[in-house]
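Customer escalation, tier 2.

The customer says the design service returned an amino acid string that "doesn't look like it belongs to this structure." They asked us to rerun it and document both sides in this ticket. The original structure tokens are below, unchanged.
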């Protein structure tokens, strides 16, 4: 796939399910991954419910490091870092 969404998650992400639903509902299929430096059982359960892999940053040194780690987790040359609290229109990836 030429495009991937990576969702950098920090802390409790109340709107994450809505975000993941919008990414899975795209008219053009893209890989989806979650990246975090703050893993939790709640995040693992949510990711598993959507069949999305979580990659954990072993070094928590701030937002720039978290976003760079997230970007490096994308299995595609084109990447959208999708904010955990946002949702995306179905044609966004087009």
């Amino acid at each position: 796939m030429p495009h991937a969404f990576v969702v950098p998650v920090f802390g409790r992400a109340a709107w994450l399910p809505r975000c993941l639903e919008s990414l899975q509902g795209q008219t053009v299929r893209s890989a989806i991954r979650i990246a975090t430096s703050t893993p939790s059982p709640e995040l693992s359960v949510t990711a598993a419910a959507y069949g999305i892999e979580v990659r954990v940053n072993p070094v928590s040194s701030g937002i720039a490091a978290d976003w760079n780690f997230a970007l490096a987790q994308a299995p595609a040359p084109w990447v959208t870092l999708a904010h955990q609290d946002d949702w995306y229109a179905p044609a966004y990836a087009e």
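Tier 2 assessment: The sequence is consistent with the input. The mean pLDDT is 94. Helices lie at 16-24, 41-50, 63-72. Sent an explanation to the customer and offered a walkthrough call.
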